[in-house]
UniProtKB/TrEMBL annotation:
Similarity comment: family membership: Belongs to the adaptor complexes small subunit family.
Key words of the record: Membrane, Protein transport, Transport
The organism of origin for this protein: Lygus hesperus (Western plant bug)
One GO CC term, this protein: membrane coat
Designated name of the protein: AP complex subunit sigma
Upper taxonomic lineage: Eukaryota, Metazoa, Ecdysozoa, Arthropoda, Hexapoda
Main location: membrane
UniProt gene name: AP17_0
Domain AP complex mu/sigma subunit: start-end pairs: 22-129
Amino acid sequence: YVHACQHTSTCVWVGATKNSQMEVIQIVSECDRKSCNIIEFRDYKLIYKRYASLYFSFCVSVSDNELMYLEIIHLFVELLDRYFESICELDLVFNFHKIFIIIDEMFLAGEIQETSKRTIISRLEEMERVKR
């Protein structure tokens, strides 16, 4: 599942139970900024990264490439920054539906589908034009 969260627990979740959500928030918020960004979590790996006061995390299979997901988190944050012109907690709260659109452009059936920032942004811009 995907998780984007501010330290105060304003979160956008994809595919996580309430218990898992609370566990992830607790684990990630207790981590030292200098600690490893990859944590064993149940039968999975929890991969997270902090940007200012926002946390972004993925819970992935133990066989998945951790570094790839750290890069995907960075790409996701860059897309959010570009789309929202500097992402903040309020963007997560009031535009969660747009965040899901970005996630849908990046992933298909839980697998990475698109990694081109240019392609994703052009699709988002096209959706905005059609919506007007």
